[in-house]
């Protein structure tokens, strides 16, 4: 792949990673609840989910999923249900106020699970990759070229959310977040519930 084309791919992947949504809210929640390590784990796990959808795209399977209404609808509803569940958890945690053991705490295992499932449960990732990432896939592309596309999408997504977790867990930032955990959890929960509704309503909008 020519360098200029790869740089265009990097720009597209960065645009997708940096757009606000459930992934950012999820990394924020785990960083707030467990600090730097769970936040980074959530980001890296999310990158694996992104890599999976990127792999489907270069293999041409992403478009196949979209052309199967029942399958695509199932992914949509499962993703919406999971976002809603995360939103309810965040709202319930918000009642505890500042960060406390057994309140809003989180573990690396929970962060890894949520990172992967938020990525896989977001059908808009399929549409994003089909609309943009598929433009970089050419007929007869070598396995090395396909691997480069998948790895680029994964590395950029993972690097962005690791940077987010590092920034949020800074010694001057995290104490402020923890002191305002009550309202941040409520805002995050409301955002996740709104995104769940939007995911469900999306296919119904012309």
TrEMBL record:
A Gene Ontology molecular function term of the record: amino acid transmembrane transporter activity
Cell membrane found in the keyword field: yes
Subcellular localization(s) per the UniProt record: Cell membrane
One protein family per Pfam: LysE
Record's protein name: Threonine/homoserine/homoserine lactone efflux protein
Membrane association type: Multi-pass membrane protein
Organism: Halomonas shengliensis
Residues that span the membrane, as ranges: 41-66, 117-137, 143-166, 187-205
Entry keyword Nucleotide-binding: no
Gene Ontology, cellular component aspect: plasma membrane
Domain of life of the source: Bacteria
Keywords: Cell membrane, Membrane, Transmembrane, Transmembrane helix
């Amino acid at each position: 792949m020519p360098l200029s084309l790869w740089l265009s791919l990097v720009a597209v992947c960065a645009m997708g990673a940096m757009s606000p949504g459930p992934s950012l809210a999820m990394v924020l929640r785990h960083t707030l609840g467990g600090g730097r390590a769970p936040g980074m784990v959530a980001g890296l796990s999310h990158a694996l989910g992104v890599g999976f959808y990127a792999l489907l795209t270069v293999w041409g399977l992403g478009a196949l999923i979209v052309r199967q209404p029942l399958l695509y609808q199932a992914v949509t509803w499962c993703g919406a249900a999971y976002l809603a569940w995360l939103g309810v958890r965040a709202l319930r945690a918000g009642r505890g106020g500042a960060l406390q053991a057994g309140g809003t705490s989180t573990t690396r295992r929970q962060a890894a699970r949520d990172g992967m499932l938020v990525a896989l449960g977001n059908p808009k990732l399929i549409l994003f990759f089909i609309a943009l990432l598929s433009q970089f896939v050419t007929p007869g592309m070598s396995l090395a070229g396909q691997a480069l596309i998948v790895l680029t999408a994964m590395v950029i997504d993972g690097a962005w959310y690791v940077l987010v977790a590092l920034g949020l867990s800074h010694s001057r930032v995290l104490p402020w977040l923890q002191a305002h955990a009550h309202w941040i959890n409520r805002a995050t929960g409301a955002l996740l519930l709104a995104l769940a509704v939007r995911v469900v309503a999306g296919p119904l909008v012309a």
